[in-house]
Amino acid sequence: MERREEELIQQLLAHDDELKAAYAEHQELKHKLEAFRNKLYLSPEEELEKKRIQKLKLASKDRLMEVLHRYPAASAH
C-alpha cells in the first residue's frame, strides 16, 4: 500500500466501519504472512497455508481499496 493510501485510511478508520473491518483483516493477514517469512523452513502444509494467506491478503487489499475509492480524496490522487 502506498503511503498516501495508508494515511487516508488512518484518517477514515474512525468514520467507516466497513473500512475499519477491511483494514483490520488486511493487517491480521499481513502479520500471519510475516510469521511464515520469519521461518527458515516451511513444511509442505505451511507452504500451502502461506499461499492461501497470500491470496486472502490480496483479496482483502482489493476490498480495502474498493472501500477507500468511495471517498473523493482517494479518487483525486
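(ticket continues) Second input and output from the same batch:
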Amino acid sequence: MDYILKDIEPKRVFRHFEEITRIPHSSTNEAALSRAILEKAASKGLKAQRDEANNVYVFKEATPGYENRKRVILQAHIDMVAVKEKDCQVDLDREALPIYIEGDWLKSKGTSLGADDGIGAAMMLALMESDDIPHPPLEFIFTTMEEIGLIGARSVTADMLQGEYLINLDGGSDMASLAQSCAGSSENRFYFPGDTYPLGERENKTALSFAIDSLNGGHSGGRASDFVANAIILLGALLSCLQKLSPFELAEISGGGKMNAIADEARAVIVVPAENAAAVRNAAEEWGSLAKEQVRVTDPDMRLVVDDAPLPEFCYNQKGAGELIGLLEVLPNNAFDFFNSAKQIAKASSNAGILKAEGGKLVLICKLRSNSDHLHDRYISRFERLAKAFDAEFETLNRYGAWEYDPEGALLKLYVKLVKEEYGVDPLPVLTHGGLEPGVLIAAAKAGGKKLSAIAFGAKGEEYHTTRERLYIPSVGRVFDWLCRVLISLD
C-alpha cells in the first residue's frame, strides 16, 4: 500500500492517520474502523474489546521501569463530520478521503478531513503499536458518535475506566492551550395543550402574521455569553405585549430548528377582532422598532415583518397558548452564571432552541448547559417550578454531567508544572461551555465510585466540520512528542 504521507514526521502517526482516512467513519458508520482497531490490537497481542456502541478499549502494560506508575487513559473519538462540496463525487460512505498536502497543511479535496479527531486516534494507535516508546500502563478508549451528542462516551461504564488519569486528545489547539472544564447539558421540554377548535365569527375577525428573522444565531454554548438575540424569546415578548392591547387567538407559532443553535427566526399568526387590527399592527411595528434598537449591537439586521394573513380554519387551545406566551416572557435564556465578574465565560446557560406544534401539544425545547452539576440541578429545579406555575408538563431528557473546573486536580497540577518547565508560562486555560467527552467519562467514573483527573490537548486544526478543514502538519509532531514526555513524567 503506497502512502501519500509516508515521508511526513512523525511517520508512525501519519501512517495511522492515512489509514483512518481510507476507512469511511462518519458518525454511526464507525463499525469498520472499530474492527480495524481491534485487529491492530490483536496483532500486538494486546487485550481489547468492543462494546455495543462500537467503542473500542485496548489495554497495554507498562514498559520496563514504569510498571509502578498510575495507569493513564488516552481517549479520542473516531467518528467524523463527513461533508462534501456539491460537485464532489466522493462517496463518503464507501470511499477513501482524497487527502493532499498544501504547504504546511493537510487537506482533503472537496470533503472534510476528519482530523477532528482522527489525528488524536492516530497518536493513540502509534503509541499502542510502538515497541520503543516508554510509557506507564495505558488504556486506550476510542469512542464513537461524538459529533452527534457524545453518544459513544455516554455508553462507557465505570468498570471500563481502569485508570486514574485521563488525557483527551481532542483539544484542537496545542499543548499550551489546555481544556480544563466543559459543560454538561440536558434537553428540557415544556408541553402545553395544543388541541384546536374551529374559528368562529369569522366575518368580524382579522388574521395577522409576525415573522422575526435575520438574527445572527450561532452555537448556544459558544455564544451563550455574547447575549445575542433569540427569536423565540423575542416572539414571546411581542405576543405578551400584544396580549395587553387586545384579546387574540393563536393560530400558528414556531421558531428555531436545532436545540443547540440560538433561534434566528420565529413566526406566529394570531386572530384579532377586526376593529382592533390596525391598533395591533401599529403596536407590533412600534415594538419591533424598539426591539431592534435594543439588539443593535449583537443583531443589527434583526427584522420584524408584520403582514395580513388568511383567516385560519382552527386556532389553538387558548389557555395553553396563553400559558406558553407567559412562560416565554420570564424564561431564563442565554448565560446566567459565569466564571468571572466580567461575565465573559459562561458557567450556566439555557437556549430556547425549538418551538413547535407536535402530537397535539405546543412544545418548547430548551438546551440547558452548566459547567457545574450543582448549578445544573438548580436550574432544572427552576424550570420545574416555572412549568408548574404555567401549568405545563415538563421533562428532562438526555442529561450528561459536566467536567467541573478543578484547579487542584492531580493531573492538571502535574501538567501545569511540565508546561512551566518547558515554556516558562502557565498553559492557557480553556473553560468551554460546549460539551467534551471528559465530562461524560468523569461522570461515569463518579457513578461507579471512581475519580478521574483529566486534561485535554491536541494538534492544531482549522475549520472543522467543513470542506475547508485542514490540519497544521508541524503541530502533530510537537504534540505527539509532548504526549510521550507527559506520559513518562506522571507519577
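Agent notes: The two ends are 40 Å apart (CA to CA). The mean pLDDT is 94. Closing as not reproducible unless the customer responds.
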